Amino acid sequence: MSEKSIKADAATDRTVSELAFFLRTTKKHVVAIAVADYVEQRDRYLDPAAAHAGTGTLLDLAPLERLALRRKELARAFAKHEAGDIRLLDPEFVTPGSADIVLLAETDLLEGGRAAYDLSRVASMLLGAHVEVISTTMLELFDRPGLRGALDQSRPL
Q1: Phi, then psi, of 156 in degrees rounded to 5
Q2: How would you write 97-112 as a 3-class SS string?
Q3: How far apart (Å, rounded) are the C-alpha atoms in residues 157 and 151?
Q4: CATH code at 123?
Q5: By the 8 A CB rule, do 95 and 109 touch?
Q6: Domain tally for the chain?
Q7: Which residues are paired to 134 by β-bridges?
Q8: Handedness of CA 111, 152, 73, 56 (dihedral sign)
Q9: CA 18 – CA 38 distance, rounded (Å)
Q10: Each residue of 85-126: pLDDT tens digit?
Q11: What is the pTM assigned to this prediction?
């Protein structure tokens, strides 16, 4: 078997290097353990056979529980779309039947209204639920009172 390198951003490479140093092992070993742990955790929630064994799957959980489990993944996915400051709109203020989860996110001004649509799609696929994303950037530009109200009715993710 021939070895191949993996490309990682500078921060990830630095973290893996530091872990390898402190654990007195190789970077390759740190990555192998991290991948194995990730697969084990992810399979526990996504494996349909786990449902028959009584342990359940991710989709058996309520949407807010799924969000709690995949919060970091969601934040990383939003960051790839240049979105940040993610907030969860209080479920009691969400119109019944509109969406399972409503998130607020600061988006790139140049993306315009498309950013919220793209982020809604990303979040919905990641969580297996209907997620609506509202751009706080657009609210700030076009509906400042609405932005204040939305921020008051939400909490940081």
Answers
A1: -60, 145
A2: CCCCEEEEEECCHHHC
A3: 12
A4: 3.30.460.10
A5: no
A6: 2
A7: 104
A8: negative
A9: 19
A10: 999 998 777 777 778 999 999 998 888 778 999 999 999 998
A11: 0.64
